[in-house]
Structure formats: structure tokens, C-alpha cells
Description:
Blueprint lengths: L8 H15 L6 H8 L3 H8 L2 H23 L7 H17 L8 H7 L6 H24 L4 H23 L4 H24 L1
Amino acid sequence: MAGxxxxxxxxxxxxxxxxxxxxxxxxxxxxDLSRATGLNRSSxxxxxxxxxTLFLRCLDRYTARYGDKYDSALSCAAxxxxxxxxxxxxxxxxRIADPELPDGCLIAQSAMAIPVLSPAVxxxxxxxxxxxxxxxxxxxxxxxxxxxxxxxxxxxVAAVNQSLAVxxxxxxxxAQLLAVxxxxxxxxxxxxxxxxxx
Length: 198
């Protein structure tokens, strides 16, 4: 229609996602989202939803985008579990190193903000964290870890992965982040060797 402003939904959602990622949910206002997307407040509400709805859409977008990358990294877990976990961490380290993206992790930030989120948004953030543990657990079970060890390492690897995002925001160097990853990968390698001896 003539006179109606057109915009690209994907571009607007990406801009909103980066705004939430950079500043966090609590410190992002609708005015911030308006500046980030180039849309006025009424267009945001009519096209993208209220702040909670838009945040949920951005969280889903982030989870899908990086979830696919994590799934691809873990796809070789049945034959090469250590390489798969290293590749899993590489997805995070590459994202952290990308100068075009904010530091940290939208899911980790969301988890830390749970006390100030609405119940629906908090539940969604917890669910996003759960997806990561589930994909790791399935990959580690395929990699011949016992169910108990797979559960323990899934929790550990997910926790380390989130801590990398927090550490990067606090100014940790790439070498420091690699050292943290190295300890976890070595521990997994030792656990797998121990399982083969049993």
C-alpha cells in the first residue's frame, strides 16, 4: 500500500536480538528497540509484539541459529566424541571472537536475569538452557559414555560453555578461554579411556 512503511522482518528481528544481547532484557527499553530496528514504537508493537513477545522471538531466533551449529558440531559424537565436544566449544569461541557480534551469550544473559523476567520469559530461558544439556547428553551417550557419565559431562560442558560467554564479557583473553576448554576436553578424554578399560 502507498504510504505504508515497508521493512524486512528478519533484519528487524536480528537488530532487536543484537540489542537484547548487547544490553540484556532489563536494560533494553522499547525506545532502544526502536532505535535498533529503525521502527517507531507503534510499528514494533503491531509488527513484532510487546517487549516480552519480541524478546521471546529473539531468544527463539538465537537458540535456533546457534542450536543448528551446535548440532552440526556434535554430529560426529558417535565416532569421535572428543572431537565433537571440541567442535561444540569452537562454535562458542568463534561467536565470541566475531567482532560483529556482542560479547557473551544471549541465553547466559537471560539465565542470569531470570529473577527480573516475567514467569513466561523465565521459563523460556530455562528451556533454552535445557536444550543445550539435552543435545550434549544425547551426543555423549552416542559417544559411548555411560548414562551417568553422559549426564554429568553434559551438565559440566553446558556450564563451561555458558561460563565462556561470561568470561568473555569480563575481558578474558582467547588464550584463557582456550585453556578452560582444554581442561574440559582433557577430562572427557580421560573418562572415555577409563570407560574403554572397564
